[in-house]
Each structure stands twice: as structure tokens, then as C-alpha cells.
Design a protein that fits this description.
The chain has three domains: 359 residues, Glycosidases (TIM Barrel, Alpha-Beta Barrel), CATH 3.20.20.80; 94 residues, Alpha-Beta Complex (Oligo-1,6-glucosidase, domain 2); 69 residues, Golgi alpha-mannosidase II (Immunoglobulin-like, Sandwich). Helices cover 28% and strands 15% of the residues. It contains 18 helices and 22 strands. Strand 13 and strand 14 form a beta hairpin. The structure holds beta-D-glucopyranose.
């Protein structure tokens, strides 16, 4: 116990000596604030319910801002909360500039933004530009006839065959289903890159682009700090409508664009998307102070993804998610290779943005077989390697995947796949029912884990281990995942070398079991050593002071299974 306090003391003592100018950056005075920030992703429906309907709301986000600030996060990203039929829980937008009644009002939003800024934090949220809900006024008008003023705001095509009922081509959507939906009114098909109730906007029509850029300006004028751009990879389609080629891949992967034996090369990741990113950047840059940011969601190879950030020498998005991290096997050599790859394609001034969890994918702790040690090691990697760290809500306490049968799924993807045998789905590493990673935040040991009133039924079930896994309990346990997150975020926030220093693989320590790297800025050099194996390791000679370990009873020169350590290197 004594030793724990000794390390804590050493850590706190070292901070002021190490590098104190980072606080300036944390307060947003640096124009590149987004490069040094840490982001916490809130799925508002599941965060905190304050009005007793079992659904989280914006008032709940305000109520827990101190929690996030205390943990050390500087930016929050909130999943959609504007008006929507909620078939895809806000990713089906009915009105881009109106707050959904379920979440609050514009007054609540304005207050939230003011509260965030008062804490010197930043707020970004999802902009779903690719498609709207089929209940959006634009689609209602567009679908009303073939010659209304918005007739070509969506992608309409005549069907093939004698009676025009055959789809225009073979394209599949990202969700696996066919990408064309027949509309009785217009007697034509419309294109949907995701699900049928989410028709794609036609960005070849300049009025659509201008209307969307006005939406962007509306929010930037209010003062929001940027956007997460939902499936930006889908924004353009090949207007020649060529059939997609066959592929050997059945299931989707994070690096290729193939699903159900089809390569989605003509309806995703078109060259025009990169040019679009530079145009969007120009709109965002109209708002100079403070700098606003754009982070895109796209699958694909790093060599393609980087085009979103810099296209033909022009600035585009500030960052783009790199999804291959999420499915990377937890192995030292794999992590080394992944790091080398992002260093190659996302060298300065680009910033890699690795994804380890989000509202569509399995919970990290479940992917890691329930191991809190592995989760802490992963957090150490995330907060000490180069890039913008994103944490999906509840990852800091290890909320697990909550198995919910497809048939009971509220998620439209679950509903679409409800014919699949449940026993297979339960065993798969990836989830098909996204409800399973969206269950409520676990605040305390009270009924419903403090997410909503005990008499209210939460919109999704609460994880049944909430008596052990919750914020309140973990706060009082020095060895908890929560306390480790807090420690490692604090280290990052106070250490410019970890935020913006160069990254160099520490080959002399790397092996099948160990992944290690240096972070260097000016005179300051840090060494991060991650034992990614289940074996203890000893005889490490490191010339430096250990400042943080994933384990509280760590010893010099040896590593516990899955222990990671950060050293300040003597020079
Ligand atoms: C979002 C999903 C959403 C889809 C359609 C995504 O990739 O993350 O949650 O269902 O886009 O908007």
C-alpha cells in the first residue's frame, strides 16, 4: 500500500517539472487544440435520464460535465440529438436544426454548449450529411413528383426490366441489404447507402451541397467546435451506375469495402469525396477563432483514408477514424505493425485517430475476454501513442457487452438480421445487435445503476454486473479501471511529448511479447513499454524513472502479465 502512495507521490511530483506549458494547450489557447485533445463520446440516449422517460437527454449531459472534466477529457462528442423518427436513433435526421423533443430543446442545447465552454472544454457532434430520414421535408418534397423543385435532391433512377421493377444495378448497401428501394409514388427507385428509411442525398446537385453547408454554418455560428462526419465514405456514388465487381469477401472488414461477395467500389469512397472534404474545410475555416474541426468516419486502407485529410495539397478533414485498430489482435507484433503503418501514412502534420470502441461495435472489455488488465494496457497505449484518443462512454469503467437477442433488438440492423441463429451471434466477436454496446451508463449501485429513476424502465436493459462495475464503486478503488484512466489521461494532459512528440519504435525492447516506443519532444523523452503477454517478464534494464504503471504494486525491472509502464528517460 505504502508503495502505491510512493508512486502516486512521484508521479504528482514529476508533473510540474516535466512540462507545464501543456495547460495552455488544454485550455484551447493553442490553435491546434484538436491535436492535443482527448475526446469522450456520449451516446445521449444511454448517458443519463433526467426527465423520467427511460431515455437519456441533454440535461443529463449537462449534469455529468463535471464528471468528464474531472476525468480529464477536454472534448465531448455527442451522437445525434436533432429531430428524428429515431428508427436509427438519430442517424435518420428529420430536421438538422431542431432538437429532438426526447433530448430537450434548443435552449437546453445552448445552455449545454455554454457550460462546456465555461469549463474550457469543446463540444462536437455528429453531422449525418450522407442521408436524411425518409420523413425529412426534403425527401417528402422530392418524392412527391418527378418535377418538383427538389426532384433531384436524392438519387432517383428508373428501374430496369419490362415493368421497371428491377433495381437499377447490383449495388449493395453498407449494411448488406440491396441499396435501392422502390417508391410507389414516383414509380422509381431511390438509392440508400445504409438502410431503406435513410435515402442518400444527391451531392451532384449543387443546391444540396449549399443547403448542407448552411446547416454547417448554422451550428458553427452557435459556437460548436466541430463535427464527426457520419459515413463520409458514402457521400458520392459513381454517376455512371456501373455494376460493382465480385469480391471473395463475405463479411465486411475494417480495411476493405466488400460485403456479401461484392466490392462496393462504385458506391463508396469515390474520388469526389476527397474534393468534397476540402470544400467542407473551407466552410469550417470561415470560422477562425477558435478553430473548428472535422473528423470523418470511413472504412478503407490508410493510403486512401489520408486523402480525406489532404487532397492534392489542400487541407481537408482534420482527422479520419482508423477502424482497423478495433479488430487488431491483442498481440505485441500486431500493435507494432499497426503503429508503424499509421506512422507511415499519418506522419506529422496528420494525426492518426484509432478507434477501439463506439456505438456500433462490441464493448472493449468483452472483446478482451473480460480482462481489466488488458483494458488498462490498451488505455495506456491509446493515451501515450501519437493520435487523438477517443473513449466511448463507459469504457473507462469497463461496461460489458450485454447480450440482447436479435429478435428483441431495437437496433434496425438487429431487426434486419433477426433470422440468424442466436447461438452463433452470441459467440461472435462482433455484434450484430448494436443495442448490446448501447446499454445505459452505470453510475452507482442504485436501481437502474443511477441511469434513470428506479420506477422507470430504461430504454435498454442495464448490465447485470452493475453492482460491481459502476462509477461510484470504482472511484473509491485505487486499482480500478476508472482510476487508471484518470491517471493516464492526467499524464497525457500534462505531458506535451505524449501529445505532440515524435514516436519512434523502441526496437531494443520489442519482441513477440513486448511492444515499446519512445515519445520525444525537445529535451523530453518518454519510453512506453507494454507487456502484451500473459507471462511475467523480468530483467529489463531501463535508464529512466518509472512514472506510471498499469499495476499499482509494480516493481522496477520486472513486468507483471499485461503490465505497461511509462518511463521518463534519462538523457
Ligand atoms: C453510424 C451508425 C449509423 C450509420 C448510418 C454509421 O456508421 O455510426 O450508428 O447507423 O452510420 O447513419
Amino acid at each position: 500500500m505504502m508503495k502505491n502512495y510512493l508512486y502516486l507521490f512521484l508521479f504528482l511530483w514529476l508533473i510540474p517539472f516535466v512540462e507545464s506549458d501543456s495547460l495552455l494547450m488544454a485550455n484551447g489557447l493553442d490553435s491546434d487544440w484538436w491535436k492535443t485533445t482527448t475526446v469522450y463520446h456520449i451516446y445521449p440516449r444511454s448517458w443519463m435520464d433526467t426527465d423520467g422517460d427511460g431515455i437519456g437527454d441533454l440535461e443529463g449531459v449537462i449534469a455529468q460535465l463535471d464528471y468528464l472534466q474531472d476525468l480529464g477529457y477536454e472534448t465531448i462528442w455527442i451522437s445525434p440529438f436533432t429531430e428524428s423518427p429515431q428508427k436509427d436513433f438519430g442517424y435518420d435526421v428529420k430536421d438538422y436544426c431542431k432538437i429532438s423533443e426526447q433530448y430537450g430543446t434548443m435552449e437546453t442545447f445552448d445552455r449545454l454548449l455554454a457550460e462546456v465552454h465555461q469549463r474550457k472544454m469543446k463540444l462536437i457532434f455528429d453531422l449525418v450529411m450522407n442521408h436524411t430520414s425518409d420523413e425529412h421535408a426534403w425527401f417528402q418534397e422530392s418524392s412527391s413528383s418527378k418535377d418538383n423543385p427538389k426532384a433531384d435532391w436524392y438519387i432517383w433512377k428508373d428501374g430496369r426490366g419490362k415493368n421497371g421493377l428491377k433495381r437499377p444495378n447490383n449495388w449493395r448497401a453498407m449494411s448488406g441489404n440491396r441499396a435501392w428501394t422502390y417508391h410507389q409514388g414516383r414509380k422509381q427507385f431511390y438509392y440508400n447507402g445504409f438502410l431503406p428509411f435513410q435515402p442518400d442525398l444527391n451531392y451532384h446537385q449543387p443546391d444540396v451541397k449549399n443547403a448542407m453547408f448552411d446547416v454547417v454554418r448554422f451550428w458553427l455560428e452557435k459556437g460548436v467546435d466541430g463535427f464527426r462526419l457520419d459515413i463520409i465514405s458514402a457521400i458520392y456514388e459513381d454517376s455512371s451506375l456501373k455494376n460493382n465487381p465480385l469480391s471473395i469477401h463475405m463479411t465486411p472488414s475494417d480495411r476493405t469495402l466488400s460485403i456479401f461477395f461484392q466490392h462496393l467500389g462504385h458506391n463508396f469512397l469515390q474520388e469526389e469525396s476527397f474534393g468534397f472534404s476540402t470544400e467542407l474545410r473551407e466552410v469550417v475555416d470561415e470560422f477562425e477563432q477558435p478553430q473548428r474541426i472535422l473528423i470523418g468516419e470511413s472504412h478503407g486502407h490508410e493510403s486512401v483514408l489520408r486523402e480525406f485529410c489532404n487532397y492534392k495539397g489542400k487541407n481537408g478533414l482534420h482527422a479520419i477514424f482508423m477502424f482497423n485498430a478495433i479488430s487488431m489482435p491483442f498481440k505485441a507484433r500486431k500493435y507494432q505493425k499497426m503503429t508503424e503503418t499509421f506512422e507511415k501514412y499519418f506522419a506529422e502534420p496528420l494525426m492518426p485517430t484509432l478507434v477501439f470502441a463506439n456505438h456500433d461495435r462490441n464493448r472493449t472489455i468483452s472483446r478482451l475476454g473480460g480482462s481489466a488488465d488488458k483494458a488498462k494496457l490498451l488505455a495506456m497505449f491509446q493515451f501515450t501513442s501519437r493520435g487523438i484518443p477517443f473513449t466511448y462512454f463507459g469504457e473507462e469503467i469497463g461496461i460489458p457487452r450485454v447480450i440482447i437477442p436479435l429478435k428483441e433488438g431495437k437496433d434496425p440492423i438487429a431487426q434486419q438480421n433477426k433470422w440468424l441463429p442466436q447461438f452463433l451471434v452470441n459467440r461472435s466477436v462482433e455484434i450484430l445487435n448494436r443495442d448490446e454496446c448501447r446499454t445505459p451508463m452505470l453510475w452507482n449501485t442504485q436501481a437502474n445503476a443511477g441511469f434513470c429513476d428506479s420506477l422507470v424502465k430504461p430504454w435498454l436493459p442495464v448490465a447485470d454486473n452493475y453492482q460491481q462495475i459502476n462509477v461510484e464503486t470504482q472511484k473509491s478503488d485505487p486499482q480500478s479501471q476508472y482510476n487508471f484512466f484518470k491517471k493516464i489521461i492526467s499524464l497525457r494532459n500534462h505531458t506535451p511529448a505524449l501529445q505532440s512528440g515524435s514516436l519512434e519504435i523502441a526496437q531494443e525492447f520489442c519482441s513477440k511479447k513486448v511492444f515499446a516506443y519512445y515519445r520525444t519532444l525537445g529535451k523530453n523523452r518518454y519510453l512506453v513499454v507494454l507487456n502484451m503477454s500473459k507471462k511475467s517478464l523480468d530483467q529489463f534494464e531501463i535508464q529512466g524513472d518509472m512514472i506510471v504503471s498499469t499495476h499499482v504494486n509494480s516493481t522496477i525491472g520486472a513486468f507483471f502479465p499485461y503490465e505497461g509502464k511509462v518511463f521518463l528517460v534519462h538523457r
